Here is the input.
Amino acid sequence: MNDSQFHNKNILITGGLGFVGANLAIRLVELGAQVTLVDSLIPEYGGNVFNVEPVKERVTVNVADVRDEFSMDYLVRGRDYLFNLAGQTSHLDSMRDPYKDLDINCRAQLSILEACRKHNPQIKIVFASTRQIYGKPDYLPVDEKHVLHPTDVNGINKMAGEWYHILYNNVYGVRAVSLRLTNTYGPRMRVKDARQTFLGIWVKRVLDGQPIEIWGDGQQIRDFNYVDDVVEAMLLAAASEEANGQIYNLGSDEIINLQDLGEKLVRLNGSGDCNVIPFPPDRKAIDIGDYYSDFSLIRSKLGWAPRVDLEEGLVRTLEYYRKFQEYYW
Ligand SMILES: NC(=O)c1ccc[n+]([C@@H]2O[C@H](COP(=O)([O-])OP(=O)(O)OC[C@H]3O[C@@H](n4cnc5c(N)ncnc54)[C@H](O)[C@@H]3O)[C@@H](O)[C@H]2O)c1
Here is the structure.
């Protein structure tokens, strides 16, 4: 990717005040892009105005809901790129309120695509999908050919959201690519609770001097991406014409079980404790067991691989929240 690719480009990021969206916005501003963020700032989600503090004078923020078709019809016009990241991310919330998850992660995605088809068919879209759509893996590492059998409502709606993008690419030529993110962490993630990622609440608890709760037996394997690496993958996918209509897993070669991860976080923090406790039953019912990705497709096609290892990423994350606690607790 050529760094000037985004210079002076007109870019819309849905979910732009959220964790990944804000980190992406900061990077795009550095690259000279004109960036508009759409975010509904629903309190249970990851949107936080402080997330864009470093660029607040250089981005346009539009507090709107992607479920509002009239707003989206207007907002997609004239954009070169759309990074479509707005989403309800909590798996448990999707079980408690399945219709809300359906409206945001599925129906609104279709109306965003309709808005693009009608008002800006030249736009290029990058959609933030999730490894959750694979459900409990049949084999590891999970590649893109793995059957999709989500374990929760969120997974089903994200799967539909993803496939609408691929369909609009294939049928209408509205260029779109989907990235299936794995556990992403880093500065600007939600740490108040585990709605976005359990690692968020772990970071808060170690910094508060409270024990981390690890559910199950602690042996579940996961892979993690530091947010800067995810941002880089999004930029590569946006810049590549070869990526149109494609779906790529993100992932990491560094896999770790949750107990070791908890102990690593405690060690890097310099203090803390981990308690392994039984799964709450509502979590157990939708748990996916072990997961890690095969991301060789994006590595070979777009040249992407994560650059920030877990230790370095966790150090940077702890440092960020030590400094800016008051905006996130
Ligand atoms: N963080 C991860 O580990 C991870 C993993 C897999 C997939 N993803 C996907 O990446 C995307 C970004 O996730 P994130 O981790 O930054 O979460 P996040 O909650 O921080 O960001 C999502 C943003 O979307 C906004 N939003 C939600 N509903 C909206 C609506 N109806 N209208 C407008 N804005 C709305 C929220 O306010 C929030 O700011 C999501 O689509 C998520 O499914 C994230």
Residues 22 and 52 are 6 Å apart (CA to CA). The chain has a mean pLDDT of 96. The radius of gyration is 19 Å.
